[in-house]
């Protein structure tokens, strides 16, 4: 059975897309076939891997019966395929609520992929709307990026409560793989305080790996490649390699 990871947090700018791209790339470089599903209308994972959003090939088409085979494209990373997004995906907020299968669209499409991809990573939008609900209903694992900033814990409890509701009512297979500390600036006391508080609250649910605040990580998407291709010797690349190993070990 494929490991399907949803990358979710209702807060924006916490590193969801950066993590989705780079964990997917690290896993693919390790030899596993990986599918990265861009399920965010902003399409940042799409452009971050060097593709321009296209109406003809996007995850929006999944809402209207398209298959992953019809929309998936190859990337610059061997073994890593991308299901790109397009801003049209924002229409899901209007189109899905009236459908009986509104929370099952993505899961049904992924079921047709079978075991073609041992790893599937879904980049969710920064909200708890219909697209994120679809991702959580389809996934069997969840990674929550948590920015090392003052408001890090604000909304995190709500998200985890929502996950418990989804697990109880929609998807009992959904399990929390871990909380990931991102944008950590080792020069500041604030980052250390936030990291300590998150670990105090959630203990072993927090990954040991910590993603640093990094200019090179921020630059990589503008070149359409993951950090492991843009600057494989950087601190950001090293952090994501370590995270990918930890993700594999946690199962």
Describe this structure in words.
There is one protein chain. With 251 residues, the chain is an alpha/beta fold. The chain has one domain (3-250): P-loop containing nucleotide triphosphate hydrolases (Rossmann fold, 3-Layer(aba) Sandwich). 39% of the residues lie in helices and 18% in strands. α8 links the parallel β7 (175-184) and β8 (206-212). α1 (16-29) packs across α11 and α5 (105-113) packs parallel to α6. The radius of gyration is 17 Å and the shape is globular. The protein starts with a strand and ends with a helix.
Quickly list its features:
251 residues, alpha/beta, Rossmann fold, 8-stranded mixed sheet, 11 helices
Main β-sheet, in a few words?
A: 8 strands, mixed
Instruction: Quickly name the level 1 CATH class.
Output: Alpha Beta
Number of helices: 11
CATH superfamily: P-loop containing nucleotide triphosphate hydrolases
Query: Looking at CATH, which topology would you report?
Result: Rossmann fold
Strand order of the largest sheet: 3-4-2-5-1-6-7-8
End-to-end Cα distance, whole Å, is: 12 Å
- Gross morphology: globular
Sheet/helix structural class:
alpha/beta
Average pLDDT: 95
């Amino acid at each position: 059975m494929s490991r399907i990871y949803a990358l979710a947090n209702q807060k924006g700018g916490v590193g969801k897309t950066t993590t989705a791209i780079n964990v997917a790339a690290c896993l693919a470089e390790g030899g596993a076939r990986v599918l990265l599903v861009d399920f965010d209308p902003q399409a940042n994972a799409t452009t971050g891997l060097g593709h321009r959003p296209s109406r003809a090939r996007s995850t929006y088409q999944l809402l209207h019966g398209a298959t992953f085979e019809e929309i998936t494209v190859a990337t610059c990373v061997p073994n890593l395929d991308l299901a790109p997004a397009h801003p049209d995906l924002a229409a899901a907020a209007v189109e899905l609520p009236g459908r009986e299968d509104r929370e099952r669209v993505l899961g049904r499409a992924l079921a047709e992929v079978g075991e073609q991809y041992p790893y599937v990573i879904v980049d969710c939008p920064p909200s708890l709307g219909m697209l994120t609900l679809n991702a959580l209903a389809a996934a069997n694992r969840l990674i929550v990026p948590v920015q090392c900033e003052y408001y890090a814990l604000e909304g995190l409890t709500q998200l985890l409560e929502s996950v418990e509701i989804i697990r109880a009512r929609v998807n009992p297979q959904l399990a929390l793989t871990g909380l990931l500390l991102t944008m950590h600036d080792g020069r500041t006391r604030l980052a250390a305080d936030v990291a300590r508080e998150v670990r105090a609250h959630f203990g072993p649910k927090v990954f040991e790996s910590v993603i640093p605040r990094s200019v090179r990580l921020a630059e990589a998407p503008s070149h359409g490649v993951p950090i492991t291709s843009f600057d494989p010797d950087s601190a950001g690349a090293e952090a994501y390699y370590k995270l990918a190993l930890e993700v594999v070990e946690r199962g």
